[in-house]
UniProtKB/TrEMBL annotation:
One of its GO terms (biological process) is phenylacetate catabolic process. This is Phenylacetate-CoA oxygenase/reductase subunit PaaK. It comes from Arthrobacter wenxiniae. The keyword Oxidoreductase applies. Keywords: 2Fe-2S, FAD, Flavoprotein, Iron, Iron-sulfur, Metal-binding, Oxidoreductase. NCBIfam families: PA_CoA_Oxy5 (TIGR02160). One of its GO terms (molecular function) is 2 iron, 2 sulfur cluster binding. PANTHER family: 1,2-PHENYLACETYL-COA EPOXIDASE, SUBUNIT E (PTHR47354:SF8), NADH OXIDOREDUCTASE HCR (PTHR47354). It holds the Pfam family FAD_binding_6. Its cofactor is FAD. Residues 309-400 form the 2Fe-2S ferredoxin-type domain. Residues 13-127 form the FAD-binding FR-type domain.
Length: 400
């Protein structure tokens, strides 16, 4: 199944039940989960290194009633396809303080479990040269990354904690794609025991000793080099870019981790004059304490005597209208979920881009955006989880 690159990065989300093939302990607080993808579903799970999937499960709430919970996790391995046409998806799940899904997964998830897994999505992918031979070459070789003929490039990735997850897939793919490629990885953690994929990173260093430079920065563990000890702040990052890393001739930057770190790196790079189109970033959270709205749409009562917005949306060729009270300040996603529970979304926080739709008419206010590229915004796309109507009628198209 070969599709245009944009469709692979931004295709419509669809869930399928996949079986857990294996669960591997990475650290005391993190696991790697491998899902079996049968040949019949392989086309739905083609992906590019750096993309993510959403997992969907039913979990009991505080009242004991089961409710749907969705969480997004980056794919941590390069694509692979077996002789029988089947494939697999690997994600890493790190336990978060107070995270009910990650806590449950780390404690109880085991091989043989069945879970709903969304088709891969996301734009945290390499765009340098679009790969020699065009993007179609990347897609045709998705399951054989060593065959992707990329232009030689110089890359830098900066990750913290579980932010290493998509970077692992990117690093393996980029280094295998061209013998002239070089990659520097700055990986921040509290201590060695917290380093995910420690052995895999060491193996990658052994395989590409001249082209892969690994810089571990540990905030709570003393290292021989003072520069590699302590918190990764602006001063330390500037020092790294001025000494350990040749920052002036980098073709592409990859940033992944907590909001504060990613924003810090973006600010430092912007101050150094790095063009924005060379910087890719991925957030797992926005750093905001508020929780996303309900998984099935926050309850909203519509009184016909009140002023309302009329929201029209198209999904899978079907069009629906919803009235949304002006005082409710309801997002388009929340309104749509009240009548169509299959409306695509994952994080509901403006991070992943799953709820992307094209604004056909009317105007909206988009509160946050950490997922859409500038050209997508110019072409009229919005994140419906963050968009609220500002005109009496608004129409969006999820199929657009």
């Amino acid at each position: 199944m070969t599709v245009p690159a944009d469709a692979t990065a931004r295709r419509r989300a669809s869930f399928h039940a996949l079986t857990v093939k294996a669960v591997r302990r990475l650290t005391e607080d993190a696991i790697e989960v491998t899902f079996e993808v049968p040949a019949a579903l392989a086309g739905y799970y083609d992906y590019l290194p750096g993309q993510y999937v959403a997992l969907r499960v039913q979990m009991p709430g505080a009242d004991g009633v089961d409710r749907e919970v969705r969480r997004s996790y980056s794919i941590c391995a390069v694509p692979v396809q077996f002789e029988d046409g089947s494939s697999e998806i690997r994600v890493a799940i790190k336990r978060d303080i107070g995270g009910e899904f990650s806590t449950w997964a780390n404690a109880e998830l085991a091989a043989g479990a069945v879970m709903d897994v969304m088709s891969p999505m996301g734009a945290f992918i390499s765009k340098h040269g679009e790969a020699a031979g065009g993007v179609s070459n990347v897609l045709n070789s998705m399951n054989h990354p060593e065959d992707i003929a990329r232009d030689a490039g110089t890359y830098v990735a900066i990750a913290a904690g579980s932010g290493i997850t998509p970077v692992m897939a990117l690093a393996k793919s980029l280094l295998a794609g061209n013998p002239g490629t070089r990659l520097d990885l700055v990986y921040a953690n509290k201590a060695t025991m917290d380093v995910m994929f420690l052995e895999e990173l060491a193996d990658l260093k052994d395989r590409y000793p001249q082209r892969f430079a690994l810089h571990h920065v540990l905030s709570r563990e003393q290292r021989i080099a003072p520069l590699m000890s302590g918190r990764l702040d602006a001063d330390k990052l500037e020092s790294l870019l001025g000494t350990a890393i040749h920052a002036d001739d980098v073709d592409e930057w990859f940033l992944c981790g907590p909001f504060e770190l990613v924003q810090l790196c973006r600010d430092v790079l912007e101050a150094r004059g790095v063009p924005r189109d060379r910087v890719r970033f991925e957030l797992f959270t926005t750093g905001r304490p508020d929780q996303p709205e309900g998984q099935a749409g926050r309850a909203v009562l519509v009184d016909e005597s009140e002023e309302t917005y009329k929201i029209t949306f198209t999904l899978d060729g079907l069009t629906a209208d919803i009235l949304s009270p002006i005082h409710a300040r309801e997002s388009i996603l929340n309104a749509a979920l009240r009548v169509r529970p299959d409306v695509p979304f994952a994080c509901a926080g403006g991070v992943c881009g799953t709820c992307r739709a094209k604004l056909v008419c009317g105007k909206v206010e988009m509160e946050e955006n950490y997922a859409l590229e500038p050209d997508e915004i110019e072409n009229g796309y919005v994140l419906t989880c963050q968009s609220r109507p500002t005109t009496p009628e608004v129409t969006v198209d999820y199929d657009g």
